Amino acid sequence: MSGYSVTQIGTIDSWTGKSFIEGDLGAENLGISINATEPGEGSPFWHSHSRLEEIYIVLDGTGEIAIGDDIVPLSAGTMVRVAPGSMLAVRCLPDSPAPMKWICVRSGDDSLAGVGKDATLDKESPFPWSA
Amino acid sequence: MSGYSVTQIGTIDSWTGKSFIEGDLGAENLGISINATEPGEGSPFWHSHSRLEEIYIVLDGTGEIAIGDDIVPLSAGTMVRVAPGSMLAVRCLPDSPAPMKWICVRSGDDSLAGVGKDATLDKESPFPWSA
Asked: Does B105 lie at the interface with A, CB-CB under 8 angstroms?
C-alpha cells in the first residue's frame, strides 16, 4: 500500500483555470479542484450531484454562487457546503479586484469509484447573472 | 432538506490556530480544518485514521509532514494525500518566513457519521524534528 502521495500546485497567485487533483494524488474518497476564475467569467453550465457533497472554499477575489433560486456572495474566506441534489453555478464578479481563487472538495458516502459519475448537467437554463 | 449552508472563515492572513468547519456547515461526508501553525510549532501528537483519507493543502509558509519514517517538505502549493493507516505529524519550520497556513480535508468510504471516530493517537513517539 502506498501510504501517501504528493503533488505541487504552486502558489495561489500562479493558479490558472480549473485543475482536478485527485488523479495526481491517487485519492480514493476525496475529489478536489483548484480554480482561478477571471472577473466576469463563471461556470459554463449548471450542475448538481446525486450523491456527492461539495464544499467551496474561496481564497481571493469576489464572486457569487447560485444554488437553485438563491445567490450567495463569495469573498475571501467564504465556505459553502452544497448538498446532493442542488443545482449550482459559480462566477467571479465583473468588478472583482482579482481573479477568484477557490478550491472545491467533494465526497460521498462511498468511495469516488463507488459513487461513480453522479453529476447532472443543465446546459439550457440561464444563469441569474445572464442579461 | 437544506440544500446548502454558508460560513465565513476570513482571509488567510486572519486565520489562527485550528478550526474544524464541518460542524458549522452541517457537512455529512467531508471533514475540513483550517489551520495556522506558527514557526517552530507543530502537531502535539502523531495520529492516523483507520478509514478516513486525508488531503493536506499548504497555502503559505514552509514546513514538513512526517509520515511514518518519511519527511516531506511543505511550501505554498504542496498537496499531500495520506492514506488510512499512516501515522503522521505536521510542523511549521522554525525559520519559516510566515506561519504555515494549511487546509486539511478528510473523508471515508461512508458518511462521517458512518465512519465515526476512527483516529488512533500516539502521544509517546518522538517526532523526527525533536532534539
From this structure: yes
